[in-house]
Design brief:
The complex is a heterodimer. Chain A is mainly α. Helices cover 77% and strands 0% of the residues of chain A. Chain A folds into two domains: 72 residues, no CATH class; 34 residues. Chain A is flat. Chain B is elongated, with a radius of gyration of 20 Å. Classes of the chains: A mainly alpha, B mainly alpha.
């Protein structure tokens, strides 16, 4: 992430075509890994953690390279990502204890 | 169109600069929209997780063929359309108008293919008795959440295709500049990103392992 005052236009030229091809390739590889994982007959919880973990890596690749956030000013990253994480954590804190309580109520 | 000189103000970001993020207002606006839209999708996915956890007879109906194979191919289409979109943005910034328009239109074709194949999947499920309000395999909320989530995503893809066609037309006629192309690219990559969560949560977590 560039912290100095780089020109937005200059910044667009930072990633190369080759880099984009690599990101695309790794996104496809991670998708393949996810599909294979789905057939490993794991328990739902470790499966969910692995799949969501891989999805988070994939989305980080998309945001950082395809959406250029890695090449923007740090300030832009700081107004977007922490606020999203904060909102998601708040939703999880309020929703999931209730959802898991219902699971325990099942016979 | 008067463009802001981001270089002139970037150095004095918080000292009264008009562009503290060293970007144009369109891009900042799109990022803030995507932030709010990501919360819309997050709550939809969490609601799906909630009802699934709370259900005693949630089905796992998807076989490797056709459902998983189709959804994996849809992922490939979306990822490839994102690649053509970054190529379009790069070409637009190099002022290669024809090349950029071709890449944008290729991206839109990817979007149309995605919607077409996904609609076929929907109709196959309708034929098997799964609708937004009923499900012969178990909990009716399976149908509600499946069509709700994938429908919301497909709506975004469809709007994206229209958006990209407008941008391609405007950029080809030099009414829009490279920043417009880049901002439409942000939207398109976001639609791709959301699918990276819907695909494992809705499809891969519902693979039929009994077969």
């Amino acid at each position: 992430m560039s912290t100095h005052g780089t020109s937005a236009i200059e910044a667009h030229h930072a990633p190369t075509k080759k880099l984009f091809m690599w990101v695309w390739f790794w996104l496809l590889v991670l998708t393949g890994v996810e599909v294979l994982l789905a057939y490993l007959k794991l328990d739902p919880h470790p499966m969910l953690v692995l799949l969501v973990g891989l999805s988070l890596i994939k989305s980080a690749l998309i945001v950082a390279y395809f959406m250029h956030l890695r090449f923007e000013k740090l300030g832009l990253f700081l107004i977007i990502v922490p606020s999203l994480v904060f909102c998601l954590v708040m939703i999880l804190i309020f929703v999931f204890p209730d959802s898991l309580r219902i699971v325990r109520l099942h016979p | 169109m008067a463009e802001m000189d981001v270089d002139a103000v970037a150095g004095q970001a918080w000292g009264g600069g008009v562009a503290p993020f060293a970007t144009n207002t369109k891009k900042l606006g799109m990022w803030l929209f995507l932030l709010s839209d990501s919360l819309t999708f997050s709550t939809a996915i969490l609601a799906y997780a909630y009802v699934r956890l709370s259900s005693a007879n949630w089905p796992r109906p998807f076989e490797i063929y056709p459902a998983i194979a189709n959804a994996t191919f849809l992922t490939f289409i979306l990822l490839s359309s994102s690649l053509t979109m970054v190529m379009a943005v790069a070409a637009a910034h190099r002022n290669e108008i024809k090349k950029a328009v071709i890449y944008i239109l290729l991206t839109a074709v990817g979007g149309v293919a995605f919607v077409g194949l996904h609609m076929m999947e929907w109709f196959r499920l309708f034929a098997e008795g799964v609708t937004p309000w009923s499900n012969k395999w178990g909990d009716p909320l399976f149908g509600g959440t499946f069509f709700g989530l994938t429908g919301l995503h497909m709506l975004h893809v469809s709007i994206g295709v229209i958006y990209l066609c407008i941008i391609a037309l405007g950029f080809g006629r030099r009414k829009f500049n490279a920043d417009h192309v880049e901002v439409s690219g942000l939207y398109w990559h976001f639609v791709d990103l959301v699918w990276m969560f819907i695909f494992p949560m809705v499809y891969l977590m519902s693979v039929n392992l009994k077969g």
